[in-house]
Amino acid sequence: MGKSIYVGNLSFHSTEDSVRNLFEQYGAVQSVKVITDQETGRSRGFGFVEMDSDAAENAIRALNGADLDGRALKVNEARPRESRPPRRW
Fold first, then answer.
1. How many domains does the chain have?
2. Residue 82 domain-assigned (yes or no)
3. Distances (CA, A) of 34 to 16, 29, 61, 83
4. Parent domain of 37
């Protein structure tokens, strides 16, 4: 089973392909998702990569603080999303 990795501090110019290319140096990448704003389609500056457990651990150690597109990445194991109360408009 794969492990989900949080990748923060992404440049707005970073693409899913550039993130995939960086992480593939440490093993097979199962999926990459750069999170975008629903209204503008612009990157929100973070995303998620899924890899097998051993490759994920190696990638986290190697890439936390690494440079991608001029930004120092924040890389760690993704935590489950915390439940939030529904928005009220």
1. 1
2. no
3. 6, 14, 20, 21
4. 2-77
Q: Is the dihedral of CA 15, 76, 82, 29 positive or negative?
A: positive
Give 14-60 pLDDT, tens digit per residue. Answer: 999 999 999 999 999 999 999 999 999 899 999 999 999 999 999 99
The Cα–Cα gap between 87 and 54 comes to: 38
pTM: 0.88
Tell me 25's DSSP state.
Answer: G
Identify whether the C-beta of residue 67 lies closer than 8 Å to the C-beta of residue 28. Answer: no
* Cα angle 7, 72, 2; round to 5: 25
Strands annotated E in the chain: 2-8, 29-36, 43-52, 67-68, 71-72, 74-77
Does 86 map to a domain? Answer: no
Tell me if 84 is assigned to some domain.
no
